[in-house]
Amino acid sequence: MLELRNVTVKYGHYAAVNQVNIQVFKGEIAVLLGSNGAGKSTLFRTISGLMKPARGEIIFEGEQISGKSPERVVEDGIVQCAEDRKLFPQMSVQENLMMGAYIHRKNKKIIKESLEEVYNLFPILYSKRNEAAGSLSGGQQQMVAIGRALMAKPKLMLLDEPSIGLAPLIVEKMFESIQQINREGMTILLAEQNAYAALNIADKGYVFENGNIVVQGTSKELFSNEEVRKAYIGA
Questions:
Q1: Exposure check for the chain: N or C terminus, fewer CB within 10 A?
Q2: What 8-state DSSP symbol labels residue 3?
C-alpha cells in the first residue's frame, strides 16, 4: 500500500531522514521504533505532504505522492494523527471530530456514520461530546485525536506516539483500540518509543536512529534481537 524508496529529508544541510526504505502492506500494522529526535515525526510529515523530500519517492497504492499538497494526500486516503494530539482545546469534542470529516463536509450521511463509528469505538467520548476537548484527560484527548483521524475515512493511518504521556493502564487500553481499528480493516503505520507495547500489536517494525533505519524485521524478530531489547525494551 505504501512504499518509501530512498527517501531523504533535510533541514538545511542536515539530513533528518536519510535514504529510508519502508514497505507497508494493506491490512498491516507496521511500527517505526526510535527515541525522540530519531526522525520519525519528520518522516510522517513528509508522507503527509507537510514537508518535501530532498530525494527519493513515496508511492501510495501505486501512485507517486511525493510533492502532493497535504489536502490531496488526505483525499488519497492517508491521515496523520499527530504527536501531542494537536486538538482545538476550546472547541467541543464533537466539533474536534467534525474537523476530521472536512473532506466529506458535503455528505451528511458519511459524517453521521463516521461519528457513530467513533462513539462506538470510544463510548466515553459520546458522554463528553459537548465538553471542551481541553478539559479531558490525556487518554481521552488521545481518543479524540484518533477519532478525528478516523472521521476522514482513511485507508492508511499514521499514528505518531499515541502512548506519549499516558499512564501504563491507559496505554494498554489505547493499544487495544488500535488493534480493533486494524481488525476492522485499517492499515496503520505507527511511530512509537514504547517498543514493548508497539511490537505486541505490530506485524513488523523498523528501528530508526539518527534518520536511518538500522534494524528491520517482523515483530518476533525484533523481540528476539538482543540489541533492540537492550535499547528499547529494557531486557
A1: C
A2: E
pLDDT of residue 231: 79
Asked if residue 52 is part of any domain, the answer here is yes
* Closest by CA position to 7, among listed 45, 53, 44: 53
Question: 23: closest CA among 38, 5, 41?
Answer: 5
Q: Given the C-alpha cell 471530530, which residue does it identify? A: 97
The answer for residues whose C-beta is within 8 angstroms of residue 223's C-beta and 6 or more apart is 199, 229, 233
Confidence of residue 116 (pLDDT cuts 50, 70, 90): very high
Q: 10 Å Cβ neighbour count for 69?
A: 10
Q: How confident is the model at residue 35 (pLDDT cuts 50, 70, 90)?
A: confident
The model's pLDDT over 120-171, given as tens digits with 9 standing for 90+, comes to 999 999 999 999 999 999 999 999 999 999 999 999 999 999 998 899 999 9
Tell me how far apart the alpha carbons of residues 182 and 186 are, in angstroms, rounded to a whole number.
5
Does pLDDT of 57 surpass 60? yes
Report the alpha-carbon distance of residue 93 to residue 135 in Å, rounded.
10
The whole-model pTM stands at 0.93
**117 lies in some domain:** no
Domain that includes residue 206, residue range = 1-67+188-235
192 sits in which H/E element: strand 187-192
In angstroms, rounded to a whole number, what is the distance separating the alpha carbons of residues 84 and 126?
Answer: 22
Supply the CATH number for residue 7's domain. Answer: 3.40.50.300
Q: How many domains does the chain have?
A: 1
Distance CA 212, CA 34 (A): 10
Whether 9 maps to a domain, the answer reads: yes
Rg (CA), the chain: 17
